[in-house]
Design goal:
13 helices, 6 strands, 330 residues, Rossmann fold, 6-stranded mixed sheet, alpha/beta
């Protein structure tokens, strides 16, 4: 019997049986969709955004309890304009046209909400037409006829229409074990708990590096003379995931070098201040009232030559200053 290494996934996971983890993210996404909110997923390259969108499309009918739900995944990387996107979605809904109005008519003809998952939205955003497209689709989603989920590489954009924002981060150790287990089913080889923990550390919880580390470990089971750690680290150093290199601590053996976990903001403005921060004005120095009183008394002495009158003015000023300080501190 010839054993085949199953850890060759280097892109979007389309096999529903090989998707694992992301429970918190999925729960929040479906909760927001049920509430009529568009969702914006952001994160570094290779972190699993495309796989997550695909799984949302595959599982939405069950999770939203809509057996007849029509759900679509669309990669925007090669789209040439908003009309291209509208045309693709409208034709998928058996309609005709390449405008927002045509999409709204097609959605009305369906009569039930339609789920649309848009991947790689950073491409149209960089091209200059993505912002208008996402805001237009978000307004349609707000009307209830469209369930919208968008994924973007990098930080979420600031749009006039608010999205529920999710920053996708590293997998938890339990999710790493589940992901590897999904690929090891019927593979004829198993990994020990210690090896699974080491993969989680060496990959920093990044799904793409989990695949690579597991691939080299599987190969070492076939060839006991292979140093899978050295082979994996050499590949990770020489051919890192574009835009998402491993933390240096992974190569230096200093802890697990873990990447940041997922974040669950309410909207893409979560990190923006609603108003400028106001700095408090400094308090007046307590000595100021007495200094003013003494100055007034001195000027009065010079002007009138009357020492009793100057002392009286100084006494009144000092008493008034003391009263002012007590009130200001109460």
């Amino acid at each position: 019997m010839t054993l085949t290494n199953p850890f060759t996934q280097r892109g979007r996971i389309t096999d529903v049986e090989r998707f694992a983890g992301r429970w918190a993210e999925l729960s929040l996404i479906f909760e927001r969709l049920e509430a009529g909110r568009p969702v914006l997923i952001s994160g570094p390259p290779g972190i699993g955004k495309s796989s997550l969108l695909t799984h949302i499309v595959q599982s939405a009918a069950v999770n939203l309890e809509e057996p007849e739900l029509r759900a679509f995944y669309l990669d925007l990387m090669d789209a040439t304009g908003a009309d291209d996107v509208y045309r693709t979605v409208v034709e998928a809904l058996d309609g005709r046209g390449d405008t927002l109005a045509a999409l709204e008519v097609a959605l009305l003809d369906v009569g039930e909400p339609v789920l649309l998952c848009l991947d790689n939205a950073q491409a149209p955003l960089a091209a200059g037409w993505g912002e208008m497209l996402l805001e237009a689709l978000a307004r349609v989603a707000r009307g209830g006829s469209l369930l919208l989920v968008v994924a973007v590489v990098g930080r979420p954009p600031l749009l006039s229409e608010r999205f529920a924002a999710i920053g996708l981060g590293a997998l938890a150790p339990a999710e790493v074990r589940l992901l590897i287990g999904a690929y090891l089913d019927d593979a004829g080889i198993s990994f020990t708990p210690a090896e699974l923990r080491e993969i989680a550390e060496l990959s920093a919880g990044h799904p793409a590096y989990v695949q690579r580390a597991a691939y080299h470990l599987f190969q070492s089971k076939l060839d006991p003379g292979l140093d899978w750690r050295a082979a994996y680290l050499a590949e990770a150093r020489e051919r890192p995931v574009p835009g998402a290199p491993l933390p240096p601590a992974v190569f230096e053996g200093q802890g697990n070098g873990r990447m940041g976990g997922s974040s669950y903001g309410q909207d893409q403005y979560a990190g923006v201040r609603d108003a400028p921060e106001l700095l408090p004005l400094p308090e007046a120095l307590p000595i100021l009232p007495w200094a003013i009183s003494l100055l007034v008394a001195l000027l009065l002495l010079v002007a009138t030559g009357s020492l009793p009158l100057a002392l009286l003015a100084a006494g009144v000023g000092l008493a008034g200053g003391l009263l002012w300080v007590r009130r200001s501190r109460s």
